[in-house]
Amino acid sequence: MQPYTKVPWMELPRPDEAEVRPSGGEGLYFRRRLAPLAAGAFGSGIAWLGDSITRGLGATNKGDSWPGVIAGTSVAVAGDSIPTYAMLHSGGKLAKTVNAGVSGDTTAKMLARVKKDVIDYNPAVCVVLGGTNDSATPVPVDDFAANITGIVTQLRAAGIVPVLCTIPTINSTAQRPVIVNYNTWLRRYCAVQGIRMLDFYALTVDPATGNLLQSTMGNTDGTHPGNIGNALLGKYAADTLAPLVGAATIPVASDNTDALNLVPDGLNYGSVTNGLAAPWGVFGSLPTGATPSVVTDSLVPGKMQQLSLSATTSGVTLYKRITPTPGRRIVISGTVTKTAGAAGLRAYFNTSNQTDTYNQLLDITEAVTRGKFSTELVVPENTNSIDLKMFVQPGTTTFAVGQLTAYDLTAQAVL
């Protein structure tokens, strides 16, 4: 940790510094340099530790039912949540998102599972958001502080950079003063410790009433942001954190001659038949109102496979097939653009020997432009192939996917 520096009171802090104001002073205060946000190779990324707000309980697509949850852990994959939208809006910088949000968790429960659900995944950064459930008891602020401090201590000991969040407001007049008290402590703690902060409270509170901005957050229960709110908070997190990370770490193919890419014609230069670039396939037949096409985006290398839906009454699944080696660790990633609309987009894969098991890559309803998504897995034994599928729910929307990529990290010695 770098030493304190004495500076004039009116000098504005740098983006990589936090204020530490004295209880009394003569126009002077101390400033501590914030810890850098490191972005490692493909195996590093960002984890999110929290409760149902992190998990995305107020969202339409929670990432829980496909199953979207890593077996034996509390970790979700990519539901319609704040972590998912942070990944998508980060320009490829907030890679390998792990959503370790558990509904009903207090900060004490988060502390108890931080090793299993975060540290064991070896992320570079962990965003911590908790305290809403503490405020219901309420947990004394000293106990809340001890839990957060314990989480930060474990993360730092493991070489993981912590980022703390203020707790979003809620409509409970009993809990709100407790949340304000927790947030006051969090702001002071972050300043003293040189920890970066995401101020979710400021983004969610109605300044006139103290209530949750329900229409802005797409909320119905007075506590959990909905799809719209998760997208807004995720983009805010990405806008705040991504510039501090450095180069993009989500690996996507940039040319169609990339021999390491396991996805055939990942940049969609194949011959086009009925709007589909070979070898894209469609399960079943396209319903009325579904129109596939191949499009270009000047900021996305190659071409994008697009699918437009207009008031369709059934879902559509497009797919590509890869044949990775069982037992190898692979990363699957791509670029996606989606317009707003009632239809949701799910990108997921299922292995040839697990035809009833779907593992989500992505599950979103809100608009995204050139969003980068990524996940890693070890290919199960006896797997002959993996189908990468883009499923769009019935309704109206347009989505396009490009740079679909699968790299064998084991073969490349990137573990």
Tell me the count of domains: 2
**Model regions low in confidence, pLDDT < 50 over at least 5 residues:** 1-36, 38-43, 61-74
**Percent in strands:** 25-35%
CATH C-level name of the largest domain:
Alpha Beta
Structural class designation: alpha+beta
**What's the main sheet like?**
5 strands, parallel
Q: What features would you describe in this structure?
A:
Strand 6 (125-129), helix 4 and strand 7 form a beta-alpha-beta unit. Mean pLDDT is 82; it is low at 1-36, 38-43 and 61-74. The protein folds into two domains: 34-244, Rossmann fold; 272-408, Galactose-binding domain-like (Jelly Rolls, Sandwich), CATH 2.60.120. The strands form five sheets. Strands 5-4-6-7-8 form a five-stranded parallel β-sheet, sandwiched between helices. Helix 2 packs across helix 8 and helix 3 packs parallel to helix 4. It is built from eight helices and 20 strands. The protein has 415 residues and is of the alpha+beta class. It has helices at residues 52-55, 82-88, 107-117, 141-157, 176-193, 200-204, 214-217, 227-241; strands at residues 5-8, 17-20, 28-33, 46-50, 98-101, 125-129, 161-165, 196-198, 272-273, 276-277, 281-282, 290-297, 300-309, 316-322, 329-338, 345-351, 359-364, 368-378, 386-392, 397-408. Helices cover 20% and strands 29% of the residues. Residues 49-231 form the SGNH hydrolase-type esterase domain.
SSE topology:
Elements: E1 5-8, E2 17-20, E3 28-33, E4 46-50, H1 52-55, H2 82-88, E5 98-101, H3 107-117, E6 125-129, H4 141-157, E7 161-165, H5 176-193, E8 196-198, H6 200-204, H7 214-217, H8 227-241, E9 272-273, E10 276-277, E11 281-282, E12 290-297, E13 300-309, E14 316-322, E15 329-338, E16 345-351, E17 359-364, E18 368-378, E19 386-392, E20 397-408
